[in-house]
Amino acid sequence: MALPRRKLKIVVTVVMVNLFIFILATRFSQERNGRNKILIPSKSFWTKLVPNQAYWNRQQQIQDVQNNPILTANSSTGYMPDWLNDTDSTSDPCQPNFKVTTQMKDYNSLPERFKDFLLYMRCRSYPLLMDQPSICEQPPYLLLAVKSLAPHFDRRQAIRQSWGRAGLIANQTVVTIFLLGNATAVDHHPDLSEMLRYESSRHKDIIQWDYRDSFFNLTVKEVLFLDWIQKSCPGARYIFKGDDDVFVNTYHILNFLKGLSGAKSRDLFVGDVITNAGPHRDKKVKYFIPESMYVGSYPPYAGGGGYLFSGDLAARLHNASQSVALYPIDDVYTGMCLKKLGLAPEKHKGFWTFDIEEKYRSNPCAYKSLMLVHPRTPQEMIKIWTWLSKRDLNCQ
Ligand SMILES: *[C@@H]1O[C@H](CO)[C@@H](O)[C@H](O)[C@H]1NC(C)=O
Ligand SMILES: *[C@@H]1O[C@H](CO)[C@@H](O)[C@H](O)[C@H]1NC(C)=O
Ligand SMILES: *[C@@H]1O[C@H](CO)[C@@H](O)[C@H](O)[C@H]1NC(C)=O
Ligand SMILES: *[C@@H]1O[C@H](CO)[C@@H](O)[C@H](O)[C@H]1NC(C)=O
Ligand SMILES: *[C@@H]1O[C@H](CO)[C@@H](O)[C@H](O)[C@H]1NC(C)=O
Ligand SMILES: *[C@@H]1O[C@H](CO)[C@@H](O)[C@H](O)[C@H]1NC(C)=O
Questions:
Q1: Cα–Cα distance for residue pair 61/80, rounded to 1 Å
Q2: Cα dist from 174 to 51, 251, 271, whole Å
């Protein structure tokens, strides 16, 4: 038996070698004949940076080049094409940028909110009107930062009396702040500044910046908040940021955080994560973005209703945000900054930004093991918090 098998091996080997020689020979002869030549690219095979037709993408390309030390080292040699040269880099980014009105061909036909956004897209700093610079003198374990609007007094008060109660919860320090812009006359808001001043002196938890508090400016709120953390609360261990119409189970969040350590705790970013999404092209949708503004899909992002992240990551996000052009949808923007850091938010099933099933909404036990639910009225927040704070809440 052994002999024929060895013979077979030899035969197979000889055949293979012959076949190999045959292939080589035919290749060479073909080349000499000029047929089937090995293809040598006639043009450079690396991609040349061509200007993207969408305005946001193009602004990001410019930023990427400006932040690339290899390319900028030689910017004086005239290597940079004109479109990459942000000639206005010396002018005040907080003055309206009228160049965009000609750089975007459909600018004039865009809805007003886009025009407002585009004119001020480069401005990232606005003066503080109200601040609490020493609110984090004792660095909190958990900072609850709530996006609010000046007229929402009742929501803020309900949060103070329920899930946003500052102080010691489950033996951990919690600090609550409200993030506000200016509710301006442009948007027909009544002047509530006196009442706001009273509220701020009474509760000392309002941070307000002087910019127009509109939906498309929520990204401004985000970058101002990232600045503020580094300046006034860099020691916060964890940060929750969310809307003022959500209920947060602070007990459950603290319990979840207690179990974290190492990289899991350092890189923490959890929420209701949306993946494989992209811009809405239907003009009637609140989240509509025209093709002339943005092309491409969105990176994974955590819904802006509320998400939880580490103070360590807040510092890195602050850094990354400096090189990501402002985008009119704040939670998508934060996803872009995370992507810049090579990170992605993690989905946690306790974040119910699209609410729980109706039949469970009045069941106290339904709230015990969730982190966040949206939406809830001020009265509901207080009611649910009372349920959760009962010692004898017995859920199986
Ligand atoms: C910059 O340009 C000079 C001359 O054009 C070249 O010698 C040098 O290698 C370039 N430096 C970089 C970092 O590309
Ligand atoms: C960019 O534009 C400015 C202002 O017009 C000009 O001074 C500078 O030389 C330009 N840089 C390059 C690399 O073209
Ligand atoms: C509360 O926290 C303090 C300081 O972190 C610690 O010394 C104390 O033992 C804790 N008490 C309880 C009941 O966990
Ligand atoms: C904020 O908005 C109010 C109301 O429109 C306006 O009177 C005020 O000038 C704005 N700015 C500041 C700094 O309050
Ligand atoms: C954002 O705020 C700035 C400063 O108040 C304002 O000029 C701009 O119009 C606002 N943008 C939007 C989209 O409301
Ligand atoms: C922020 O960026 C600077 C410069 O790029 C770097 O030195 C610093 O370590 C960064 N900080 C964080 C927290 O990533």
A1: 12
A2: 47, 11, 19
pLDDT value for 14: 81
Cβ of 70 less than 6 Å from ligand 1? yes
Residue 319 Cβ < 6 Å to ligand 6: yes
Query: pLDDT tens across 223-257, in order?
Result: 999 999 999 999 999 999 999 999 999 999 999 99
- Ligand 4, atom 12: closest residue by C-alpha: 210
Query: Per the confidence metrics, is the pTM higher than 0.90?
Result: no
Q: Mutation test of ligand 1: which of 74, 75, 77 has the most ligand atoms closer than 8 Å to its C-beta?
A: 74
Question: Which H or E run contains 48?
Answer: none
**Residue 100 belongs to domain spanning:** 55-73+81-119
Nearest-CA residue for ligand 6 atom 10 is 319
pLDDT number for residue 68:
84
Rounded Cα distance, 177 and 6, in Å = 82
**100, 118 contact by CB (below 8 A):** yes
Q: What atom in ligand 6 is closest to the CA of residue 319?
A: 1
Using CA positions, which residue lies closest to atom 11 of ligand 1? 74
Binding pocket residue ranges, ligand 5, CB within 6 Å: 113, 116-117, 120, 211-212, 214, 216-217, 220
On average, the pLDDT of the chain sits at 92
Reported as a single tens digit per residue, the pLDDT across 182-224 is: 999 999 999 999 999 999 999 999 999 999 999 999 999 999 9
Q: Are 96 and 151 within one domain? A: no
**Residue 66, ligand 4, Cβ within 6 A:** no
Maximum CA extent, the chain:
103
Residue 184 sits in the same domain as residue 132: yes
Same structural domain, 271 and 350 = yes
* pLDDT band at residue 74 using 50, 70 and 90 as cut-offs: low
